[in-house]
Design brief:
single chain; 386 residues; mainly beta; Methylamine Dehydrogenase, Chain H; five-stranded antiparallel sheet; four-stranded antiparallel sheet; 1 helix; 50% strand
Length: 386
């Protein structure tokens, strides 16, 4: 199960309806982050070697090591954002207690609850270079609201008249993007917040449309259901116009990230709709990014150097690992000793965060930082796109 599938199930329930996944990620998605210099290890942090896929890809030695960031005493944690200062945000949770989700911030080797002692539930989705955090919060018994944390203070954002809103990203200018319900409480629309003012970005023709990323110029990427609500397509929005990005031959695609050059990333069904592959899109062309040898891959974020983070099935499809696409090659980022991991965010200077299950408990997933090491043979190549 993908991290955003898990997050949808949790956050759509009573206390904080949201993918995550991760990251990730998302409301209505039914189909289905190297250490910075000077940052110390978390007190409970441990390094686990990369587990090479069993496909004989060649290339020498580990591609990365994963550093456990902990989980605030809860069973699992999921990071959804990271900036150049090495500050990581996300949420912690216990699988059996849906109301247990708590937003976290990790910096200088320490994870703390972003909401302090305040009762309620929420997630931190993204942060910018100034440390402004976007996310959502629900007080006990109350609706989920999009919020920004500025200097540690939680500030709610206006919605579109419906019951819930979520802020999924924020750029360095302070503009945030996400989604919310219209007054009918059935229709979801992407929102762009600027100067605390909400703008409805429209739809792709269906009843669900969400925004996942916004770059410094206000270019927004997300996905929406088409007319009839059966297929979903990735979109890019700019200056009042929403553009359909198409697919890799299948029925549906999902837009998840965009950089300041306007390169969008996400994933798409292939012809026949049996598999999904990560894609990059630029100037009207969608490119299949391939996999680590298994059937599926997913891209979640991209930085201004064109490095793309996500995850992929390994050879044979028995495991799913976080990965990094860099210069036409795909790097397996390994795990914390378990068999599944996800890359969820990448900073402008290339810090990669994600989530992995543990060798001691395969049902518990912890936030981690992936330390990428190219080694003398370079990154391990993945399978070519189809």
């Amino acid at each position: 199960m993908q991290p955003h599938d898990v997050q949808i199930r949790r956050l759509r329930r009573r206390n904080c309806r949201f993918r995550c996944a991760a990251w990730l990620a998302l409301v209505g998605l039914l189909s289905l982050c190297p250490l910075p210099a000077g940052c110390g290890r978390p007190p409970d942090g441990r390094r686990a070697p990369h587990a090479a896929p069993s496909g004989g890809f060649g290339g020498g030695g580990p591609a990365s090591a994963a550093v456990d960031l902990g989980a605030l005493g809860k069973e699992s944690s999921s990071p959804l954002g990271v900036n150049d200062s090495g500050v990581v945000v996300g949420y912690c949770y216990d699988d059996e207690r849906e109301e247990s989700q708590r937003p976290f911030i990790w910096m200088n080797g320490r994870m703390r609850d972003l909401a302090g002692a305040r009762a309620g539930s929420g997630t931190a989705q993204c942060l910018n270079s100034a440390g402004v955090v976007a996310g959502c919060w629900a007080d006990p018994g109350g609706p989920t609201r999009a919020v920004l944390w500025v200097d540690g203070k939680m500030t709610p954002l206006p919605g579109l008249g419906g019951k819930e809103t979520v802020a999924g990203c924020v750029n360095d200018a302070g503009a945030a993007a996400g989604w919310g319900y219209l007054p009918d409480n059935r229709t979801q629309r992407p929102i762009l917040w600027s100067h605390r003012r909400a703008t409805d970005l429209g739809s792709m023709g269906g009843t669900v449309c969400v925004a996942h990323a916004v770059n410094k110029s206000g270019l927004v990427v997300g996905w929406g259901r088409l007319r009839g609500d059966r297929a979903r397509h990735a979109f890019i929005w700019s200056k009042g116009t929403m553009r359909d990005l198409g697919t890799l031959g299948g029925s549906s695609s999902w837009g998840m990230g965009v950089n300041d050059a306007g390169v969008a990333v996400g994933y798409s069904q292939l012809r026949g709709d049996r598999e999904r592959h990560a894609f990059s899109w630029f100037a009207g062309r969608m490119t299949d990014l391939g996999t680590l040898g298994g059937p599926e891959s997913f891209a979640y974020g991209i930085n201004d150097k064109g490095r793309i983070v996500g995850f992929s099935d390994t050879f044979g499809g028995r495991e799913r690992h976080a990965c990094l696409w860099d210069g036409g090659r795909i790097v397996d980022l390994g795990t914390l000793g378990g068999d599944w991991s996800y890359g969820t965010a990448i900073s402008p200077n290339g810090l990669v965060v994600g989530q992995s299950n543990l060798a001691t408990n395969h049902y518990a997933f912890h936030a981690c930082i992936f330390e990428v090491s190219r080694g003398p043979h370079g990154p391990r190549p993945g399978s070519p796109g189809r």
